[in-house]
Amino acid sequence: MGISQKFIDTAWQALEASVIRYNERPVGTLAARDSTAHALNYDQCFTRDFAVSAFAFLMKGEVEIVRTFLTKTLKLQSLNKHLDCFKPGQGLMPASFKVEQKDGQEYISADFGENAIARVASVDSGFWWLLILRVYVKATGDMALARKPDFQNCIKLILDLSLTSRFDMYPTMLVADGSYMIDRRMGVYGYPLDIQALFYIALLAAKELLVADDEYVTVVDERLGHLVYHLRYYYWLDFNLLNEIYRYNVEEYGPTAVNKFNIYPGSIPEWLKEWLPEKGGYFVGNLGPGRMDFRFFAQGNLMAIISKLASEEQSQGIMDLITSRWHSLIGRMPIKLCYPAIEGRDWELITGCDLKNTPWSYHNAGNWPFLLWVLVAAAQKTGRVEIGEKALETALTRLHKDQWPEYYDGKYGRLIGKEARKWQTWTIAGVLVAHELIQNPKHLDLISFTEESAMVSCSLPIPL
Ligand code: GLC
């Protein structure tokens, strides 16, 4: 494939230029290096953004930055045991951090969301942290780091925080709107797929990293089994299932109910009836009482493939959907964060008239090139390598010339995002990881899982 080595070399230089140092040692990467825009918090190292940088560095054999990141952020984890609602809860990992100077000394200041726009706390940081640790261990063989008592403790605190019983009785995790990559109101409250897939991956990572006979392993195993069943069975949508929902009975009570979540057929959006192909399918964006969010969310679907949360048939189905709806999901820049946009009165009510999230922009169905890493990985995992190659080629015709924007706007991702930062680090790292995967497909083992890693009993009935 004709990827210009010059672009790749420039991307590596740009990634190196984004490195943050702490006492002269590399410790993370800035979110963006755009001198023409207000920095806001883009001059910080975000845990989720750094995950993509970490994968790139590890694939290239640069381990020090990742190790330092892990050891320093471990110390930032909240240990607040008291019920002080103004402090981050015990086990929470920071959304971002910054290296600052005081009296000639450097120190690291963490943000758990208390300073973030709209004060959002991130539920995904701990999950990304666990995945970074897993990839680091796989790449270096340094299991000794993960087995250190402070690391084991950190893993368990993340598990305590995410596995604790709350007011609901689902295996999925209940989260607030805007508490992860989509860090603004977008109607993703409840049980968003993106978080459930990441939660699943975090549990797989924790299982590998904990000492084998640790009592937490049993709990993790049990949740993995419930999650895989719940997601494969209730979130999956294809044309036949759509037809079933279209003819659903409602108000069913008791254990024999078919329509367990009381989804009214009238809630099926018009766009879906034409858009959903007869071949292929996807996991819907969210599921809760009386609510199925039919939007397609790329990160959750692609991560379901690389983690094997999706069955083989479902994984192939997602790639079939991407192929047959290439124009709407990939268009001129891979890949839509979600599809389609929410518009009109829905946009007003759901986003709170958020002008950054206007229809077909930013989180509201903008195109995000950082997702290339997981798109290429999912393509490889399903043996559909050409999909990843074609997506990367599409991206490389523009990204370098456009100075690596954060996101693109428009139905087909033709315009550089209205408020997109240039020199966005995870755009750069996303391309580098995608490129490294294509050059050396063995790297896929670092970031993906096998069905055996979960040892999940798949004898449970699945609707395929
Ligand atoms: C935006 C994105 C968020 C990302 C951050 C830094 O806030 O919504 O997901 O982590 O920018 O790039």
What does this entry look like structurally?
The radius of gyration is 21 Å and the shape is globular. The strands form four sheets. A four-stranded antiparallel β-sheet has the order 6-7-8-9. Strands 3-4-5 form a three-stranded antiparallel β-sheet. With 464 residues, the chain is an alpha+beta fold. It has one domain (5-447): Glycosyltransferase (Alpha/alpha barrel), CATH 1.50.10.10. Helices cover 44% and strands 11% of the residues. The protein has helices spanning 5-17, 47-60, 64-74, 125-140, 143-146, 149-163, 193-209, 215-235, 239-246, 270-275, 298-307, 312-324, 326-329, 344-351, 372-381, 385-396, 425-439, 444-447, 451-454; strands at 19-22, 25-29, 45-46, 96-102, 105-111, 236-238, 281-288, 291-297, 338-339, 408-409, 415-416. Helix 4 packs across helix 7. It contains 19 helices and eleven strands. It binds alpha-D-glucopyranose (GLC). Residues 31, 46, 48-49, 181, 183 line the site of alpha-D-glucopyranose.
